Amino acid sequence: MISVGIIGCSGYTGKKLTEYCSNHPKVNKLKLYSYASAGQGFWTIAPEFQGVIANLPVEHSSDLDLSLDVYFTALPHGESIKIIPGLIEQGKVVIDLSGDFRLDDAKLYEKWYHFTHAAPEFLSEKIYGLADWKETTYSGKKLISNPGCYPTVSLLSILPVVKEFADDILTVSTVAYSGTSGAGKSANADLLLSEMDGNARAYNLHHHRHEPEILQLLNKDGFVSPFSFSTHLLPVAVGMYATTNIFTRMAIDPDQVKNVFASAYEKSAFVRMRDQAPQLKWVVGSNFCDLNVSVKGNSIIVTGAIDNLIKGASGQAIQNMNNYFGWTPSLGLLPSEVNHVSVY
Ligand SMILES: NC(=O)c1ccc[n+]([C@@H]2O[C@H](COP(=O)([O-])OP(=O)(O)OC[C@H]3O[C@@H](n4cnc5c(N)ncnc54)[C@H](OP(=O)(O)O)[C@@H]3O)[C@@H](O)[C@H]2O)c1
Which of 9, 10, 13 best tests ligand 1's pocket when mutated (most atoms within 8 Å of CB)? Predict the structure, then answer.
């Protein structure tokens, strides 16, 4: 059993983490932290959980109990980095949902995140926690950097093809769509219901910070071909969809590609290969990533759908905790794998 702290429990991903940890069969102590909502009970900041999970007190994020085993940081980028080095130095396990440690190269933070990285020594001392990818290993390091939501669905769509056919790939293009919760709960006029209802639009073309994160992993597997990544907002609150077009030098046998995906995810509890293009409705509210692959001649099209707050953030973070401790990956994430009495 372990004790857990959630820093940033009032945000979209922090609330989900609180729900999952409250029902997790291996968590016997849970502490919640916030800046703006310190001093309140969890039900005050998340009334939807009244009578569902315990009304835990919310303490101030600058007054952490350092006796806990694991800390989740669900803070905006640039904020996690202020807390994490101190926790790691205390020997704690930290699972960070922000982008503060995802990139390996400190210089990239200036270009993509607009800050000078204050703890570059930790960038090589982290696990990039793509939880369903068979090559993700958890030994020896205390910091798990949870992937971004777009990188999660994009990498799960592309990596099996790159592993098998890297030398034969001409180009890869991922066109991805997100619900508005992907931007967190901070006020933003562009995300008002009256702006987004009945609307859709592309944003951050050629400068989305998830692009270098995706390329970082693809490049490690020998991918050097042109990659294009475009992001769009959908008029839904939750859900993320990615369609990836991959062109190869020569025609590829469709059965070979399907077998590559089947074998890549045969041990994954949360990637479901589908016979048809997935739909958001199949995954929203769950930790699943649904994928379909269609092949014709030298064109491979992979479609993928996730819940951005769960598989793209909190659910994957819990899966990373499970993987780190060698527990069943679905503990706390599937109805058959939760405690029915929440922790105090
Ligand atoms: N939303 C997604 O789909 C998603 C997916 C993957 C990764 N992420 C990442 O996960 C992290 C949390 O995302 P989220 O969607 O949960 O964000 P959010 O809803 O905006 O919540 C962030 C929380 O951080 C706390 N905070 C501390 N310092 C802050 C500051 N200077 N400005 C604003 N908030 C501050 C706030 O709570 P208190 O004041 O109560 O402390 C706030 O509730 C982010 O780094 C985000 O990029 C999000």
Answer: 13
